[in-house]
Amino acid sequence: MSSALDSFLDKWRDRWPEWTFVERFVAEGDRARVVAWFALLQEFDNILNATGDTTPQDAKLAWWGEELRSWAAQRSRHPLGRVLEPVRAPWDQLADALPSLIDAREQPADVVQARNALGTYASAVANVEAAVFDETQASRAADAVLTQMLAQRVQDLGAAAVPRVPGDETQWEKQLLAAWPSRVDGPRPRRLYASLARARLQARMKGGEYQPRPVALLWRSWWAARG
């Protein structure tokens, strides 16, 4: 595995150190691909949640669109592509959805707008995940992807990511949690990832630092992995 690829995978692992405890619920042969996929999504989350002058991020997003289209022909340039491009997935659909992340940076007027702004992208992510993780119910997983993204935006941006209605950060987090079951639809890696992200949102709402106990983490992950 190249050092360039390692650097991208490690960035995701550094943000999600809990994954070390829960990856045992993923088949050993699939673990590198799972982390590569989530590392790619983290790149897009970072672009979505950028602030200030976003010109460099917008250019990077355009580059990623071209890169994803090249994966269909297995001509990747990015290290993550070495792991992901062998999978026959709707990479073009994901590339087509990337420009919607630019408009989605704007503070939404209400809950409906917040979800609609990211709906196309979330559906594309779910469709790719269905191919990457050999899952058939992609449409059911799109909502889990969307809710997790909205929660990540609050974590990264605070009040700036809260819809003007309700406008209150605590109320918005409560709404997100209410729409987020403890075990979501989708392939096992998404269920595990969502479980970790949901636990972080719960800790944030309690006002404390997220410090999961290994036993509780394993129990929660086992429950999520069961499907």
| SS-based class | mainly alpha
Number of discrete helical segments: 12
Uncertain residue ranges: none
Mind telling me the C-alpha Rg?
Answer: 17 Å
Number of strands: 0
H and E string: HHHHHHHHHHHH
Q: What oligomerization state is this entry in?
A: single chain
- Average residue pLDDT: 93
Shape: globular
Largest sheet data: none
Please specify the SSE layout and strand pairing:
Blueprint: H1 3-15, H2 19-22, H3 31-48, H4 55-71, H5 79-84, H6 91-97, H7 100-103, H8 111-132, H9 138-157, H10 169-178, H11 188-206, H12 214-226
Helix pairs in contact: 1-3, 4-6, 6-8, 8-9, 9-11, 10-11, 11-12
Keyword list:
12 helices, 67% helix, 227 residues, mainly alpha
Report on the structure:
It is a single chain. The chain has 227 residues and is mostly helical. The chain has helices at residues 3-15, 19-22, 31-48, 55-71, 79-84, 91-97, 100-103, 111-132, 138-157, 169-178, 188-206, 214-226. Helix 6 (91-97) runs antiparallel to helix 8. The model has no long low-confidence stretch (mean pLDDT 93).
